[in-house]
Amino acid sequence: xxxxxxxxxxxxxxxxxxxxxxxxxxxxxxxxxxxxxxxxxxxxxxxxxxxxxxxxxxxxxxxxxxxxxxxxxxxxxxxxxxxxxxxxxxxxxxxxxxxxxxxxxxxxxxxxxxxxxxxxxxxxxxxxxxxxxxxxxxxxxxxxxxxxxxxxxxxxxxxxxxxxxxxxxxxxxxxxxxxxxxxxxxxxxxxxxxxxxxxxxxxxxxxxxxxxxxxxxxxxxxxxxxxxxxxxxxxxxxxxxxxxxxxxxxxxxxxxxxxxxxxxxxxxxxxxxxxxxxxxxxxxxxxxxxxxxxxxxxxxxxxxxxxxxxxxxxxxxxxxxxxxxxxxxxxxxxxxxxxxxxxxxxxxxxxxxxxxxxxxxxxxxxxxxxxxxxxxxxxxxxxxxxxxxxxxxxxxxxxxxxxxxxxxxxxxxxxxxxxxxxxxxxxxxxxxxxxxxxxxxxxxxxxxxxxxxxxxxxxxxxxxxxxxxxxxxxxxxxxxxxxxxxxxxxxxxxxxxxxxxxxxxxxxxxxxxxxxxxx
Length: 519
Ligand code: F6R
Prior knowledge:
Blueprint: E1 2-7, H1 12-21, H2 32-44, H3 49-59, E2 64-70, E3 73-82, E4 89-92, E5 97-100, E6 112-115, E7 120-124, E8 129-133, E9 138-139, E10 144-145, H4 161-167, H5 169-177, E11 181-182, E12 187-188, H6 197-202, E13 205-210, H7 212-229, E14 233-237, H8 238-241, E15 252-258, H9 264-275, E16 279-284, H10 290-293, E17 297-300, H11 313-333, H12 338-348, H13 351-359, H14 362-372, E18 377-382, H15 387-401, E19 404-409, E20 427-431, H16 437-449, E21 454-459, H17 463-468, E22 471-475, H18 483-501
Parallel strand pairs: 13-14, 13-15, 15-16, 16-17, 18-19, 18-20, 20-21, 21-22
Antiparallel strand pairs: 1-2, 2-3, 3-7, 4-5, 4-6, 6-10, 7-8, 8-9, 11-12
Helix pairs in contact: 1-2, 2-3, 5-11, 5-13, 7-11, 7-15, 11-12, 11-18, 13-18, 14-18, 15-18
The protein binds fructose -6-phosphate (F6R).
């Protein structure tokens, strides 16, 4: 038997004890080895390959994806998805079939795919794919046709996927708006969300749940939905949601944000929302992923596949998605008048161009990156709607450059962290022309007074910031509610260049995986 395994067999010690007591000798301490022995044991007791595989899958607990091959039937692969484990994509080709964990891996061979559901197994041969539940019921799978162009899964002219994906945001943001906005009437269309005026009116609370970068996108969403639609929003990170006994009822929305749609903690949060009878929504990039399938309604990010481990375009797209969602909710609930709605919708038109103008400043950002390449740490400060951008900017730097960085609400500095500032601790201040601009100016003054090097993200023409900061990363003037889409871009590029100057592998940073499909 040969096994491919992603996940953790939670009951492996128990299973191992049983196998060992039957005289089976283990060669390693891994949980994966248990799977092979289980399957071989079932075969030895007379089961055929498929039956042995099924019995094995039924014994495994936890979130796992398992593929099995047998030396006796080398033309067959049996795959199973157990629990809320990462994806299994089955690609249908001509006289050939494929198994992969994600779509980009097989795009160049086929666009016809089937997604394996939890507790299903697939028996795959050259000529066919048969899907059954782990209880043996045959399943008629839905075949999806993927529209991503294979070329978009390649690096093209860029050095790294991350750099390509940063630049792709201009296109991704255009696609995010395409077909969803009626600029003439000032209206938003998000049909997959299945939102009706009746539903919109009865919503009393929204929980946004997500992990990492996606959670920071959710924090911006909280500002937008509360400001525009006047619905209370709480952001709870995925790994905490189910342990916080959230107050969910039939008038509560649980909105999950996820690039992969397969993050175990985010899926577990959605399950908790379902268990408590809430309305389940998701904003997801990976078409057909679990977070998309189990939701009552969803918004598909229009970014195309994201390959770089550090998320970039799957951060800005949900910012715009949540802005559109906020307008839609506000309109259905009568929380905004027509004039405001039209103005908010009209502002969306500016987004792709604003993003494109930041891309044009990359050479300047690279120069600043050279001056910062040897820093040991950095504080990122922001306020209001740009406060989550401080968190996101710091996360980008730490995950790909391995420099410690901390995002902080600027107003909290005086309650402790200001003690960190000296000549060795640069401070990055998000100071665009938004309602918190003046507060950020005084923050820059305080950092300078303590000898810190200040890097500011500021709006073109802001002479005040220019006169105070050591380096300025310029952004074009943007409507403040959409400013996070713009302010984050120089921080992505800064992190990218600092990491590449340090000679690091930005697409595959150490210790990180693109989708965290286990707890
Ligand atoms: C950081 C990053 C991670 C992900 C997080 C959630 O750059 O990529 O923090 O944002 O693991 O992943 P998804 O969005 O796939 O649920």
